[in-house]
Amino acid sequence: MPRDTLTRDQIVRAAVSVLDAEGVDGLNMRRLGTQLGAAATAMYWHVKSKDELVVLAADHVWDEIELPDPDEVGWRAAAAALAAGAHGMLGRHFWMLPAMSTHLLHGPNKARYDDRCLAVYEAAGFSGPDVDQAAATVLMFVIGAAQGEAAELAWRARLRRAGADEEQQLRATVARISEIAEQFPRLRARATPSVEAAPSLPDEDSFEFGLRTILDGLDARLANGSTRSRPESPAGR
Fold it and tell me: pLDDT digits over 93-150, tens only?
């Protein structure tokens, strides 16, 4: 593909595809050129570097999240939807979490998401620094909840790049984890449940449980009035 027929949007979308398959370490201009059927040098007419491309790709995937209106659905439903949307996005794009540790990810789509989160917690009744704290607390939980699955996907991508057998490596790793768990009674009990124990399924998964617990806590802060107002600046007096 000649460089003058490429667009930045095409390059960013192709970068997301490569990142989804191979992670940040697997992305380079030559690999991207192969994906697009163009010379690697053609990429530099639209993006300055791989680092810039990672930032652009990250902002692109933030646009996948629907932004509910708290005035229409209520603040709590809106907060839950925003959290679930971010959790799902991070699950689809495992490379986002490693990228967060090496890049300052920003852009209009991420800013739009953050702004809507702040609007939701303002609608709930938080004010001043508590608005930022509420939004940050939920987002930190979302990132933490996505970490385990993202780590496994990143590990698999690294094995693929190295040409290793994923399933064989996974079986060996699981066996080693099980061997370690056997040394600790509570982990051992969970790995080998009692025959007499009645089988039961949780009403909700761990993400839903954790999110509900956090929103319950925020609700309680609103109910008992333990929120703070942002101090008025001297200029505003």
Answer: 999 999 999 999 999 999 999 999 999 999 999 999 999 999 999 999 999 999 988 8
Tell which residue, 140, 94, 101, has the closest CA to residue 117: 140
pTM over 0.85: no
Long-range contacts (CB closer than 8 Å, 24 or more residues apart) made by 65-72? 65/89, 65/113, 67/112, 67/113, 67/116, 68/116, 70/119, 70/120, 70/123, 70/124, 71/123
135 in Cβ contact with 114 (< 8 Å)? yes
Closest CA to 60 of 118, 103, 17, 3: 17
CB atoms < 10 A from the CB of 231, how many?
A: 9
DSSP characters over 173-235: HHHHHHHHHTTSHHHHHHHS--TTSPP---SS-HHHHHHHHHHHHHHHHHHTT---PPPPPGG
In this predicted structure, what is the pLDDT of residue 193?
A: 55
Helix pair 129-162, 8-22: axis angle to 10 deg:
70
Helices (H) and strands (E) in the chain, counts: 12, 0
pLDDT per residue as tens digits for the range 33-87: 998 999 989 999 999 999 999 999 999 999 999 999 999 999 999 999 999 999 9
3-state secondary structure 145-185: HHHHHHHHHHHHHHHHHHCCCHHHHHHHHHHHHHHHHCCCH
> Hey, CA dihedral for 206, 207, 209, 214, is it positive or negative?
positive
